[in-house]
Amino acid sequence: MARDNSEQRAARPVSHRRRFLIGLAVAALLAVGLGAVLLAGAQTAERRERAERRALVTLSTLAAVVDRASGGSVQEAAPAGTPAETPAETPAEGGMGLGAEIAAAEQGQAPAPTDAEAGAIRKAVEGFAAAHPEVAAIRVVEFEGIRLAASTSAADQGAKAAPRRLERDEKPLYDLGQRLRAAVESNRQGAEGAARAPELGFERHPNGVLALAAPVERGGEVIGMVQMETRAIPEPPSFAWLPFAAFWLAPVIALLLLSFVLGERRWPLATAAALFLILALFFYGRYATDVLKAERRASGQAVAAQIGDESKKAEALLAQLALSSNRPAGQPLASTLWDVDLYRQSRGLIGASGALDEGKLGELAGVDAGRMTRSVGLLALLSLVLLAFVGLGWAARTGAALVEYRAAYAYTLPALIGMLFLVFFPFFYGIALSFTNANIYNTDKTIFETWVGLQNFQEIVSDFHIVQHTPNGLAWNYQNFYYTLLFTIVWTVANVAIGVTLGLALALTLNLKDFALRPLYRVLLILPWAMPNYITALIFKGMFHRQFGVINQILQTVGLPAVAWFDHPFSSFLAVLTTNAWLSFPFMMVIALGALQSIPADLYEAARVDGASRWQQFRSITLPSLKPALVPAIILSVIWTFNQFNVIYLVSAGDPGHSTEILITQSYKLAFEQYRYGYAAAYSAIIFLILFAYGTWQNRVTGATEAIG
Amino acid sequence: MRSRRNDEPVHWPLHIFVLFMVLITVYPILWVLTIAFSGGQSLVIADVPTDATAVDRLRAVIPWPTHLSIDNFRSLFADQPFGRWLLNSVLVAGLTTILGVFLACTAAYAFSRFRFPGRRAGLMAFLVSQMFPGTLMLIPLYIIIVQWLGLGSSYIGLVLIYTVTAIPFCVWMMKGYFDTIPKELEESALIDGASQATIFFRIVLPLAKPAVAVTALFSFMTGWNEFIQAATFMNREDMYTGPVGLRFFVGGFSQQWGYFAAGSIIAAIPVMALFLFLQKYLVSGLTAGAVKG
Lengths: 709, 293
What we know:
The complex is a heterodimer of chains A (709) and B (293). With 709 residues, chain A is an alpha+beta fold. Chain A has helices spanning 2-8, 16-77, 98-106, 115-131, 171-189, 241-262, 266-320, 358-391, 394-404, 406-433, 455-461, 481-510, 518-530, 533-543, 550-557, 569-597, 601-609, 614-642, 645-652, 663-672, 677-702; strands at 135-142, 147-151, 164-165, 201-204, 210-218, 221-230, 467-470, 473-476. Among the domains of chain A are: 18-46 and 265-404, no CATH class; 79-113 and 135-230, CATH 3.30.450; 491-662, MetI-like (MetI-like fold, Orthogonal Bundle), CATH 1.10.3720. In chain A, a hairpin with a 2-residue loop joins strand 5 (210-218) and strand 6. Chain A is flat, with a radius of gyration of 37 Å. Residues 1-11, 72-113 and 325-330 of chain A have low confidence and may be disordered. In chain B, helix 5 runs parallel beside helix 8 (155-180), helix 8 packs antiparallel against helix 11 (209-225) and helix 9 (183-191) runs antiparallel to helix 10. Chain B folds into two domains: 4-69, no CATH class; 73-292, MetI-like fold. At the A-B interface, helix 10, helix 12, helix 13, helix 14 and helix 15 of A face helix 2, helix 3, helix 5, helix 6 and helix 7 of B.
């Protein structure tokens, strides 16, 4: 029946059925496809992390074995506590001292390492490597004497076999060790909650090769480092094609079947399509959450198994090396502490008994599920829009317009794409950032995780502490938004007033007939405009220098005292004002001169004939003729001055104490000196609102954009 | 007939005024030339002894070096990486010019010649984008260019940013010029069987040469003179552009004023020459819309 219907309407070949089917197919492809890509990414990340955790377990075992091996033999050679073995003699400058140390070692000043210790470590490392085919190379570095104590690397055979001194080109290895040592020491001294430095070296190479490094400690001191490189593990691509195809095609087939019943009725079709899409996404979300949960569990189990395995291997190795009797205080191997992060803190996913911690696992799964819900929700929204776009025929209309005006769109497309991605997208992203508390410490989080709503705006706008009480009485609070706004307005008005006055005066003068040397004056006076303004700013910064600046020397020449320009808000303001006035008056002058020269001479002639005075001529002819050119120039110059970043940033830099900061430099400093991205974005958004309001008002008053035609 | 003297004001006080302004205008430029040719890194033109006489003091403010030397220019290239920075600037500004002019010409031609859905919105969008404050764009651009695309300290990142910065002005400017080229030329070419692309490249662009020159100048100056974005995106010292490098000489605790002055002259001369040569067009572009209305 439905078919009959559509055939009858062949004259108007709009098939809602076809549109919704295509729309649903495209929308579901987008949503499920993106979802599948995200899921595959999460799976790959989890598998990667699993490999890392397993490698870290192996590394921890290795470090423990080397600890035992070195600790045991050194105690035989030199009893603990003698000053000779304090490793604090290694210079504190980190890696910089290697050259000097090598030189010292070459002169024979370094303590000779004992053969027994070196032998024990080498044997332990060789035994360990033999038991671990997945480990490609192990190197042990000792800081004392800068020695490579043991190595199974293919590069260290023959003449380069361990033990030997490190060579100069192996400095990065030594530096890495020193970095780990510094990290361990600072973390140990560091206050609770202070930023910690990673205590394990970790690098990922292509093909899943991991290069790991751990410090080797003895008696609480880091005396060396063990570095381990795993073999390449191929990472299988984990994109699940079958579920993807199923979740994509299921709603489309369902709609196709249903459409035989619904026919060409538009709204039932729309409802059904939307419903199927949402259902498909809902089930896809559940499926993805389950997959991730299983992946997490598999990781935990694999790591737990690895720990058991490694601890057995290590016991066997230590027994074989007959080192077990020399364990310091007879500690057992702390195998439960092997599932660690790069800060050598336990991840807490595996309990003391070696079993999985279900509570922790559930927590992780909950976080995953929450993230998944948000992503799927967003995808649903996107795909519904797409469905409506295609299904309701907007796509067809857009397509028709694109075809009809294809030449015009082709010409504008490159510029528009650039503007879209590098102007409009960043703009909206910046607006979105202004609702978050994004800062340098949480850049890895999404916008949704750092969302704080209007808090930034409220903080900025509702803080009215423009003045503050100090021991010396009331004082401006230079960090306050309203102070900076007030300063910016004063700055803008003062600059534009000076610019217009000077520019107009010079233009009127240079416009006089028979004014001698007119072209020369014009070229000289235009120079500041031609000069790049950052250079101008830096020149004036030099000229306003308190001690050596030429402006103070001019003042002293005429008998005035030198001024510390950037030590007082007002003198600092004068300095930046002078700079900006210098570079901005030529613009006004040139605009005004151009407009003056375009006034027909007959007008003045006629006015003179009518007996008008010079002032009357100026009022009735000159000013009205100047207005169409001057008004847009003033608008432009207000916006330029309002945003005159370079002069403030380079000349006064806001000194003293942010008192000469304008809004735009203040927001730059919030972002790139205090790293409060969210707060700075809100600050910038307010600047934009102010400018936008100004622009709208100006536009209404002057109709400056009427030329859009 | 009235005499000229009553009609025109007396010229000599005005000459004093203009000369005074010229002095103020020229003094900083002479100052920077003096420091550049002094051969040293000091900010002072001449040392002032503790018991300075008026003559000593006067000597210290007259912009002429105590002895002429081109050491600063020589070691700018021999000892300092300024040549490399200048090359970076040339590359960035040059690529910006090529890309900016191409994109602006094509887009402006469409906006001038075709009537299509979205034309007004597009033109308005270019205008509105000029109002976005730089720092609001800087944070997201930093995240996009550096963190997402990994284009920090690269030419491509900076060129893309400069190009989109320059495009809106260039599009409006070119559109204004294209509007003045009579449509009949193209119509007759169309009748003669020329394709759309031929008309654009062979007829319209050659006619718009002056506007293209101004657009190119503007794009070049955008890339050549820009400081803050270059300072934010170019973190590696060998990727500094000229402006960032010049600021490096005198920023923070560094006080190498001689290098700064010499470098400033090298960086400023090409743009100043270009600017003086082409400023007539720039001004007419800025005021075209206003004067017409």
